[in-house]
Inverse folding.
């Protein structure tokens, strides 16, 4: 619309409206689309027609994992317009991770042409428990590096935008809940990666728990006399179903696997020893999910992480075990068990979803902290 | 207040107000407390002073267990004014249970002088899963008797009041959440009785799950090669921590116990074989609660049922196991683990609480079905 049409529509004087549009144009929230020269009937200078710039609002999602950071940028129409990943090691300090993330963001924005003229907010996923209630440090006693203290302040300072921080597994659960085929009110999400974590949706809401630890399925004990976990307990699910644990179990069974790619090849050639290991992992995972599902009665259980795409038999076996565990319940609406649809970037996408703050999943979720009071 | 004072206060004519008070007096919602004769300064007939009758609104709570029915009646001030219990056997058909419940209600109301002049609603707890979404049958595949079909209609017809039906363990969880010392937003409740059931409060709301089965902790598998459960699976928590299972385990350990009273005496004389059994039960229970707590991160875990009052060591041992299971979590606010404060009538009290429908715990809970659309 032209400035004149806009002024009539919103009932402002042309002078006032012109001031507003000048400011919006300067901030690149709107752009000049064309002029009305072609259709103009009267005389005088053709009027510029203004339109919303899809790039007028950007939402930045950042997912810090144990060994890599993913970033994703969405525009005002909620489309992902840029994404990227940068690896580091489990011992990389947080200051360095932040620098790597900032450089990555500059790079993907440079490549894609995205600009942060109107950055609306930043969602950040961090490993380990996070209460989501206040800006501040993620206290992660069982990670080997200092906690993600000050991540939110560092981003708020650099980009001058409001920041939401939450546990990255919980954000991935959110991303699966809104991206998957179902529209579940009750969902249990678990992700098998370097560690094992998860997130819950109960009665249509993402669950934080009393201290921000809800969904920590990786540290449920499955074998009290099992391997020592990095958390200090013995026999946690993570000691059996994390990627390093699965690769180790395959090696213990005589297969010389080092990476997920090796595992993919072993699965392809139907290595029987590897198959047994994977089925055992699926059964153990199914027991933990079964106990959680007996407590929560979900519509859907989602098993995420690169591992389950490489080894779908884990999902298959976990689903069978889950069905056995839930056998006492009338199967009016049988539980759906599926692999995650999102791949590695799920946490970054979940972080953006948390920013949009429009999902009923996020009702009563804390509002973002940081620069100013903004609605998304 | 007198009718004159009331009319001034609410701004109605004395004639209109008189019509209303006459109707309320007839329905016994209000009563004449006294007259103002003693304090009256002017002349004329002393004016009657009217007051709310605490008995003006009654709320009936009914809790059908596997072997007994509890009823409780609350008045308009939410005080319990009458309560009672009637036993039956696990094979008593539902028609007979209903007759027993109706006779019990008549009896306790006769004894207490309670009358149902203004019955506001009926809350009913039934064993086994219940979705709470619609009036109708509780489908309980693993109970040996026909499901509680038509319970709601039978009560609605007899008393002409709206009826809410829900799983009795969930109602007990509600009763504990609102009666206990804390005011927990996140609570896991488990009850050890003839069976083992439970209920969850997540983010300040009672959880039903997708099909009404949330909280069924009794059928979490704790030993895949254990005893056959009445549900058909092996080694459910119920096969270890229900009252009959605990008594059986004590007998297997050489103690000749038949009843909870026998157990109480054995606990009192510090029978070492019984102590070992009870500690094992506590440890197993603690593992199941630990897995649930790792998923849900509650403020409080409550273990209810007569058994834990007889054998508090079960709670003690479960709490110790739970603390071990949750060891990886920073103990900023350590989890409270306690025995239920409510005794046998908890389900009936929870059923009344569900009726009041005022607790934020019940936000978005289905509204009662039955006679008319009433607010509580």
């Amino acid at each position: 619309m032209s400035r004149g049409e806009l002024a009539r529509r919103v009932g402002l004087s042309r002078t006032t409206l012109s001031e507003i549009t000048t400011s919006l144009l300067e901030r690149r929230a709107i752009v000049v689309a064309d002029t009305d020269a072609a259709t103009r009937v009267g005389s005088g200078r053709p009027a510029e027609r203004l339109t919303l710039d899809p790039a007028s609002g950007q939402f930045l999602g950042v997912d810090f994992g144990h060994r890599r950071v993913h970033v994703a940028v969405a525009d005002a129409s909620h489309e992902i317009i840029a994404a990227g990943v940068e690896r580091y090691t489990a011992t990389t300090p947080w200051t360095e991770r932040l620098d790597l993330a900032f450089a990555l963001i500059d790079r993907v924005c440079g490549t894609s042409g995205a600009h942060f003229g109107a950055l609306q907010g930043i969602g950040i996923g961090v490993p380990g428990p996070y209460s989501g209630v206040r800006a501040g440090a993620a206290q992660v006693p069982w990670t080997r590096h200092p906690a993600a203290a000050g991540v939110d302040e560092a981003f708020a300072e650099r980009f001058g935008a409001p920041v939401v921080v939450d546990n990255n597994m919980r954000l991935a659960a959110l991303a699966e809940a809104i991206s998957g085929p179902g529209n579940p009110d009750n969902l249990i999400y678990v992700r098998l990666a370097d560690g094992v974590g998860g997130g819950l949706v109960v009665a249509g809401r993402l669950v934080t728990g009393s201290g921000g630890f809800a969904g920590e399925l990786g540290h449920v004990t499955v074998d009290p006399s099992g391997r020592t976990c990095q958390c200090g307990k013995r026999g946690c699910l993570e000691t059996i179903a994390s990627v390093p644990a699965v690769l180790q179990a395959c090696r213990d069974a005589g297969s010389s696997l080092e990476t997920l790619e090796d595992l993919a090849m072993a699965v392809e050639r139907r290595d029987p020893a590897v198959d047994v290991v994977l089925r055992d992992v699926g059964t153990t995972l199914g027991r933990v999910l079964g106990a959680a599902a007996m407590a929560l009665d979900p519509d859907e259980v989602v098993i995420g992480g690169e591992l389950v795409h490489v080894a779908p038999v884990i999902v298959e076996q976990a689903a069978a075990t889950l069905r056995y565990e839930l056998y006492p319940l009338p199967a009016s609406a049988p539980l759906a068990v599926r692999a995650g649809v999102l791949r590695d970037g799920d946490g970054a996408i979940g972080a953006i979803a948390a920013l949009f703050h429009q999902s009923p999943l996020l009702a009563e979720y804390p509002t973002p902290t940081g620069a100013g009071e903004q609605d998304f």
